[in-house]
Amino acid sequence: MNETKVYINVDLQPDFFPGGALGAPGADKIIPKVNKINEKARQEGGEIIFTYEAHPHNMGAHFEKYGRHCLEGTPKAEIDPRIKVSEDHLFVKGTEHYQDYLTSINAKDLDGRTLAEYLLSLGDNVHAIVYGLLLDYCAGDTAVDIAKRGIRTSLIRDLTPALNLKPGDDQRAIDRLVAAGVKVI
Ligand SMILES: [Zn+2]
Ligand 1 centre from 175 Cα, in Å? Predict the structure, then answer.
């Protein structure tokens, strides 16, 4: 049986690129590479998913921890315009003030399905290929949570920059990914 490849672009939003509220240095280098892998995947009939955050102004604990970012109703709550989005599958998260988490596993699409529900609905032979922003936050957490659902999961390191607020956060994130069964490629 052929593998169903699902390409999961995590939180490619202006606030996580340089110049943004939680911008990772050099993260914009991934933009052409991400566009390229997505375009190739579309041509091959693979499925492209984008997750993104859209936070209300009264975000509470999440903003106390991370500062204000991805505010709903602003371009910061959308996918960065340098990233090409076609007729892809979008999942949004963090839309309620009590949702203090980083993972995209419970992000919802227009039909109200979570990312986890959707991936599990695709059958037994799914391969989730995760990349985006950031290794030591949302992208890493998302890959860990997908793998925990028993889904074959890879993370493309070259397309997943780290913020590294504390030195070594990148390596700790990779250790967590590997421990969860994610293949870091
Ligand atoms: Zn957030």
Answer: 23
**Structure confidence by residue, pLDDT tens digits, 128-140:** 999 999 999 999 9
pLDDT in tens, 37-80: 999 999 999 999 999 999 999 999 999 999 999 999 999 999 99
Domain range for residue 132?
Answer: 4-184
Q: How far is the CA of 45 from the centre of ligand 1 (A)?
A: 31
Total domains, the chain: 1
Read off the CATH number of the domain in which 53 is found.
3.40.50.850
- Cα of 82 to ligand 1 centre, how many Å? 20
Do residues 135 and 164 touch, judged by C-beta distance below 8 A?
A: no
